């Protein structure tokens, strides 16, 4: 404990930092240069080393005293906001509100956590000895302090304490559940259930439940699902409104109901709302299951191999693995993107190294198969009354069935029992975007290298468990000469694909057909696109130059030479299963099945799609439903990928065919489904954006307005006197607006560059006024953590781009001002232009109104909220302003006037007359 007293706590505070010395109970402001030197020295107490390093413009030292690490060790699996304020709140300590208070809070937090460990029963403390010993040998700064409580452990295995999987209980298989039934849910029953859930039911919420109930009715004709499109303004209470009929349907008809969201944030909220249905946590865990794509879950085999490779090496990687081991032991569901996972560890090691991202799972051959988190989640979901998933997973699963693939993401039994016959798509306005990504194809360097690795294993110096086909299959086909020949042919042929390190060779020494194609595509894009080099570049494919045409033809032939032996190998594996069905061990059968599925997916789906793209390119005839283009992807101003892209012009066509048509019913709901600004038919856009218009039976529609009094709760300003293209003026506008609201402000940008420039200019003046600024693309935090930090403080400011426009839920005073730098028009990309040509000239307006509507939707989340919305572009067309609720007053004015009004409106308790509305609906 003494050593803690001598530590200096450090908290960034622009332009420098605040330090606090416990020894004499003093804090002082220091310059950036001194803060950096102190931080880099490592003998310093901080909250979130990577964040602090970013703020100080330096790298985090290998080891230092980070209270986040200590919290994740002492309270594994407990969600927390990654800051001194967040930890103090989680521990029930007094809350710090200034950098000085935060610095003083850090040693208090550390002491509280160390004291907690000291108070644990002896058996628990002693059991942690091996892990703390491993961490001490790896140089973890907290280890010597923890050892005072857990004691000295005998020096055992080099990964002592990391083998957390040993404490996991195996999952058990259960009998198949069978097809869901078709019993009717009556609206009156749904209302009664809703009444039970909410106590006092408002009429709109009851009417919403009635409308939602339609989607749970029995299907009357194959291929014609009952689809309800239901728009409900913020505050209607739609989640419980649909959970009422949904839970009744599940009770009567058995498992098979999937509720899908677009954002993680809503998924989390949904899980909380489900607690109303099943208050008992044990029953709830059985009835409602969250399912995500397998790349979200910890792969125990990869974790074990990473632990063996890393153990004893001093550094953050060992710390990360040890803290993951603690998390594994906390009864987690293995979801690395879930609320209880210490997400800050992503700065210590790429989390993809401990997930099953590349289809490398060996299923039943894995020693951890019976305790595998992914297998457990799949089995739980099969029997759950309600599965909470996301649009991407639902689309991936449904599209694999539609394309006739044997399987994509899950085990065979998942397909056999994947009875996804009823859906609720919340955030239904995102179905178009989810389908756009889900049904797209990309023949890029990254994708080719990934396939090559899957077939040939890592080449060069890459160290990975992934071994390639030969290593994975050799014992299965040891006695099968034709299968060995097919495998060798595929391995040989895969040399046509771009390989490890292709980006470095692209300009000077491309190898093989894949890299020659990429080099020619790169030259094509550079020649045909504008010189703007910060963002991704794209070019239409036609006309093709001679070099590119030749490369396209050679690569198409090369890809066919890979697909053929892969398909043959899959057939031979299946034949083996048939021939030896009588005496094949179940584990061997499962491995053969998994291998055949993986081969088929590549031979019958991925490679044919690529070959078709190349062939249509060579003939110059792209099918009408697609748009193709070449693209150089740039990240942070550097080339990161290049390739040929293919998207559906209308991705709701495959969405309707693959997801909606095979279902029996689907509720598609959102606060922003209709467009009230374009044609007289406000529903036309909803039909277009959800795919409902492609179905045999028309969707039933309903609309419920928000119960909020927007005329009292909101003000909208269109500022007309800001000079265009003047970064200093833009930053000054943000600064003054944020000061006027006293923080609680979200700044949205249409371009990353403008965001960064503004953040750099306003951080210091805001800090001088006591306001903390967080910025996406600058702070080394993921979007979820940024929003958590922002939400935790009442007067913080947050700058962001697209991801923050939607899915951010910050009720109350923490968000009272939203500022857009300009009208968020869609970028006129090749894809967008093709869609504009297909959907008509109002398409730009439609997209823009939706963006404004979604951004405005962040502002007023409850009946007590008050907030202002500002667009810093006087040229905002009035036809776009119908995006806002009819009663919300809109005012066009100068910046000074807007600032005065905002200050007045947000002043607590003030009763300010509303400005005269210029536009009302
Ligand atoms: S079964 Fe697959 S995903 Fe699960 S731990 Fe083993 S290799 Fe990883």
Oligomeric composition of the shown chains? single chain
What fraction of the residues are assigned to beta strands by DSSP?
A: 5-15%
Report strand order across the widest sheet: 8-9-7-10-15-6-16
Percentage of residues assigned to helices: 40-55%
Mind explaining what this structure looks like?
This protein has 921 residues and is of the alpha/beta class. It has 37 helices and 23 strands. It has a seven-stranded parallel β-sheet with strand order 8-9-7-10-15-6-16, with helices on both faces. The protein has a seven-stranded parallel β-sheet with strand order 19-20-18-21-22-17-23, sandwiched between helices. A five-stranded mixed β-sheet has the order 3-2-1-4-5. α18 crosses α20 (431-438). The N and C termini lie far apart (64 Å). The model is unreliable at 406-418 and 909-921 (pLDDT under 50). The structure holds iron/sulfur cluster (SF4). The site of iron/sulfur cluster has 13 residues, from α15 and α17. Residues 299-301, 356, 361-363, 366, 368-369, 372, 374-375 line the site of iron/sulfur cluster.
Brief overview:
It is built from 37 helices and 23 strands. With 921 residues, it is α/β, with parallel strands linked by helices.
Write the layout of secondary structure elements.
Blueprint: H1 2-5, E1 8-13, E2 16-21, E3 26-30, H2 32-41, E4 44-46, H3 49-56, E5 65-66, H4 67-74, H5 84-91, H6 99-118, H7 122-127, H8 129-137, H9 143-150, H10 187-198, H11 203-213, E6 226-232, H12 238-253, E7 257-261, H13 264-274, H14 281-287, E8 288-290, H15 300-310, H16 316-328, H17 373-383, E9 386-390, H18 391-402, H19 412-416, E10 422-425, H20 431-438, E11 441-444, H21 445-456, H22 468-473, H23 481-493, H24 502-505, H25 512-528, E12 537-539, H26 546-579, H27 586-619, E13 626-635, E14 638-648, H28 652-660, E15 665-670, H29 684-690, E16 700-704, H30 710-713, E17 714-719, H31 727-741, E18 745-748, H32 752-768, E19 773-775, H33 783-792, E20 797-800, H34 802-805, E21 817-820, H35 830-839, H36 843-857, E22 867-871, E23 890-893, H37 895-906
Parallel strand pairs: 1-4, 4-5, 6-15, 6-16, 7-9, 7-10, 8-9, 10-15, 17-22, 17-23, 18-20, 18-21, 19-20, 21-22
Antiparallel strand pairs: 1-2, 2-3, 11-14, 12-13, 13-14
Helix pairs in contact: 4-6, 5-6, 8-9, 10-11, 10-12, 11-12, 18-20, 18-28, 23-26, 25-26, 26-27, 31-32, 31-37
The protein binds iron/sulfur cluster.
Iron/sulfur cluster (SF4) binds at residues 299-301, 356, 361-363, 366, 368-369, 372, 374-375.
